Amino acid sequence: MVNQMVPRPLAARTRAALALFLLQIVALGGGCSTLGRSLPGDHELPFEGANHPRIRPQPLWKQEIEGKLTDLAVASESGHILVTQVLDGQGPGNTVVSLRERSGKILWTSALDSPVRAQSISSNGDWVVVGTYEDELIRLDVKNGKKLWTVKESGMCRPIILEKSGQVLCHHDDDAIPGVAFSIFDAKGASKLKFNVPQDLLVLKVAPDESKIVLGMVKGGVWVLSGAFKKVSEHQLDGEIVDLAVSGNGGPAAWSALVNVNGVGQKLISMNAQGTSSWEQLLDSPHQQVEISLDGRNSAIYGNGPRGQAVSLWSLAPNQRLMPLWSYRAPRYADYNQQIDLTGDETLLGFEEVTERTRHSHVVALRKSGELDWDIPLLSEDGAYLYARGVSSRARLVVVGTDDGSLSAFEIAP
Question: Is the CB of residue 375 less than 8 Å from the CB of residue 364?
Fold first, then answer.
């Protein structure tokens, strides 16, 4: 599996930049307390005021992209970079997919007749699959960018490469095919499975190690599937699911969920695969995204709304509770949202440093302690937003695209 930005449909995702110009940082510890000891060096922010970053990211290269960048992914092992851009003008061929080496060298470009809705690249860069707004699923040859095969689906989908089984999962989000959660295709594009669900599907997540899949449906239904697409367990949550996240195999918590409970508020819930153990916490403000660590022990959540922004990290605690490890908050809401990521012991997020006259984008990583690990300030034009990012922790590579047409790469050297 590849660590990548997974853009949601425009109706479900607002694009880039968390705009976390935060005014306080608190490390939370012990039981269910809401305030705890301050982090070392805690004072007025932005982030660099809290502590000095442990790592200084080194710029590798910067390129100007023709037209508009619409999608970006980085292969987690090899560091290959998959970019989709839309050229100015209309008509066939104005959507271009390109593959780059870690050095920024362009290996190939491929012009497509249909706009790309979502894309996926394997961890070592030997699979590239895109889904289009014309209901096409296309596999491109990584040697030259030519089409290996095209499948015309009956609805749009978001492709996810399953490397262990050599297949592609086609997630039918936004009810593209009513009653069908996803389709499975083999390496040659042959259809192998259509997985049916009884309710409208809200969320589908695949574990980083591909050991399981979690499905979230309307009215609080959660199904946990094995890597072979067999239902392992079924759960009914009291409320409507906002987001789900799934951990790797063998962790104490198999998945975490954000759930809106009528008359109560929003809860963060973590549960093991069998549903015999669960942890939960009532939250003090609405959140939109949850991510869980590979080992199933920590969950990060992000929220953005009229009451401002919040991002925090939670750990499993005794007595079926979740303990907050740290929390960042800001009273100002963000103009645009971007998903957070959990990679190893780091929480990655983008934010904007906003004043009355200027706005500058950053990408940062926070340690499990809540301290700043590294900070990438983006030298973009005023008014340009952080649009997408791709991260390869093993290749120590971060690639960032902004909507002013810039594509930049940074090395995260220890």
Answer: yes
DSSP one-letter string for 287-342: --EEEE-TTSSEEEEEEEETTEEEEEEEEEETTTEEEEEEEEEESSPPSS----EE
For the chain, give the mean pLDDT: 82
Is 2.60.120.10 the CATH number for 24-28+40-411?
Answer: no
CB 180 within 8 A of CB 218: no
Phi, psi of 176 (to 5 degrees): -60, -40
For β-strands 321-330 and 308-317, DSSP reports them as antiparallel
Q: pLDDT tens-digit profile of 13-67?
A: 333 333 333 333 343 433 332 222 333 333 233 444 445 677 888 999 999 989 8
| Short-list 271, 248, 263, 265, CA closest to 322 | 271
DSSP code for 49 = G
What residue spans define the domains of the chain? Answer: 24-28+40-411
C-beta of residue 267 within 8 angstroms of C-beta of residue 280: yes
| CA dist 75 → 87, 363, 386, 391 (Å) | 24, 19, 20, 8
Name which of 39, 38, 33 is nearest 317 in CA terms: 33
In the sheet that holds 116-121, the strands lie side by side as 116-121, 128-132, 136-140, 147-152
Give the largest CA-CA distance in the chain.
59
